[in-house]
UniProtKB/TrEMBL annotation:
SUPFAM superfamilies cross-referenced by the UniProt entry: MFS general substrate transporter
Localization in the cell: Membrane
Keyword terms: Membrane, Transmembrane, Transmembrane helix, Transport
Record has Transmembrane as a keyword: yes
GO cellular component, one term: membrane
Keyword Transmembrane in annotation: yes
Membrane-related topology note: Multi-pass membrane protein
Organism: Salinisphaera shabanensis E1L3A
Residue span, Major facilitator superfamily (MFS) profile domain: 11-407
Transmembrane segments annotated in the record for this chain: 12-34, 40-57, 78-98, 110-131, 143-162, 168-189, 224-247, 253-274, 295-328, 385-404
GO MF annotations, alphabetized: transmembrane transporter activity
UniProt-recorded name of the protein: Tetracycline resistance protein
Amino acid sequence: MSTVDRDRRTTGWQIAGIAFLGGVGGGVVFPILPVIGMDLGISGFMIGLILSANRITRLGFNPITGSLLDRFGARWPVAIGLAIEALGTLAFSIGLVADSPGAWFLAGRVIWGVGSSLLLVGTLAAVMAIAPQARRGGMTARVRTAISLGLPAGLVIGGLIADGASANAAFLTATALSVVAALLAVVVLPPTSGRSPEPAEQRSKPETTREQWRALLGLKTLRIIWGANALLFFAVSGVLLATIAVLVDQRGLFVFGLGAEGSAGLLMAVLMSARAGASLAAGRVLDRTQSRTRLLLPAMALVAIGFAGLGLATSAVTAAMALLVIGVGSGGLTIPMLTLLGDVTPPHLHGRALSVYQWSSDFGGALGPAAGLELGRLVGFGPSYAGVGLLMLAMALPLCGLIARER
């Protein structure tokens, strides 16, 4: 391995570490807010709005993030995003002693949404800028997996600190983690990471921002990737995440004598672990083959089969097996789509393409909980999960289009 390749590999791992720390900071506060909110007399509706405010904020801010990354590179947007996340968690600390805690918590989640947009999109843009095409799958997989694992790690850390010390100690820990990650971003990220030079013909005739967005949105491959990603997040991060505890409670799928919430957490850990392992494996496969699309249809089928199996699950073991299958399938879908996005997008538009990718994630994840809970109430979770599985199978035609276009 050459010195340049070794440096790129090291920087890729460092970017993954920054992404992980940023995700941990967000996860720390998530399990605490509902409990603290109830204790402070905040209504259930307001608590739900607070928890979803960061995703709603990202829907509006993601396109701005993409433009900033394409113009300035990833170093300062990522560092500033982490600093903004630190301010958001400080707002949570203030909310504990303020007269209007709900307003402070909501403001904190909105602020956090801006910061997390810069972090999530920025770290992926940074690694794509330094990853050669032959190693893009593996390097992208590491960063994406770090993002995925940061949140559940934060959930555990936040819960332990809140139980052992106090909620404020957990919030201050999250603030400190975000500050440390911001400093690392300044030191680690190259000045031009996440920003690739425009081709010479575009420098001689600069495109307007509108023309750049029009060119990006006109790429059919990207539109398919964004749509498939929205559906995947609707299913897994939306419907499943919002309903798994209710399913466990209704069917008695308890694990190790825990209640519905604890059992659901352990079952989701199976999914997250499988997803992380499958993502890393998919990255290695992509770097060893010339095809970016060979995993898409099998992975899509696994997600559909997993949802059907979960709808039929009558024990914790069968539910865990179904979630493992969903995790493997979702990991096998995400990394090929991200890698293909990096291949087909003009390098100077990576930030914008990734911002729309993140927008599609947030849109699907925001729509899924309401749909999943309402369908579960009306028709039951078995038919609901079967319907989600059929939706996943509806991906087959557009994914076949991606395969045909690659050939």
